Structure formats: structure tokens, C-alpha cells
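Researcher: Here's the sequence for the chain we discussed earlier.
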Amino acid sequence: EVQLQASGGGLVQPGGSLRLSCAASGFTFDDYGIGWFRQAPGEEREGVSCISSSGGGTYYADSVKGRFTISRDNAKNTVYLQMNSLKPEDTAVYYCATRIGSFCRRVGGPYEYVYWGQGTQVTVSS
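Model: Thanks. This is the structure I predict for it:
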């Protein structure tokens, strides 16, 4: 059974940090690129970051570049998203997903991903 579980969200003040984790099972983890998306109420799902199957290629949306860092530990079947200098506009449910193919030149749209985690809530508020 293919499973992706996003965790690590919570409530944080502006300027604070969180690290999200995406734990995977049920497939050959290091064959797939992984993407992070987020969706705020009333908004479309937005691509945040992605990482290639090997971890050698990464991409960040302009809105998070310089603040977020994606990484993966293939031995643990886990992808991380370190989020620093958080802003209220970062508030959303964050989802991880497996990309069709191994590359990460851009996040692309949700249609380019096949398996999704349930998501974890990130709230940035004072």
C-alpha cells in the first residue's frame, strides 16, 4: 500500500520556523521526485518546492526562495521542508506528493503527481 504522511505543522509566530516531514512507504522511494504543495482556504493548490529522486535537483517557488529548504533522506524514506522566517501568507495546509518521473526542474501542477499525503496544517499568526 502506497502511503505518504505529512507531519510537523503547527502554530508559529511570524519570523518563526517549522520543519515538515513526509514519510513514505509502499513504493521504491528513491525512484521518485517529491513535491510540496500548499493550499489556503479559497485558494488554488500552489506548488512550493520539489526535489529530484537523488536529491541533486531542487526547485523553490519565488514566494519561499531563500526561506525554505527541501531535503531528503532516502535511507529513511523521508523528505523534509525546513521553513524559516515564516510569514502569515505561508498559512496553509501543506501536502507532499510523488512526482511522475525523477526530475525537479519546476514544481509543475498537481496533475504531474500521482500519490498524495493527507496534509499538515501550518498557521503563522501573532
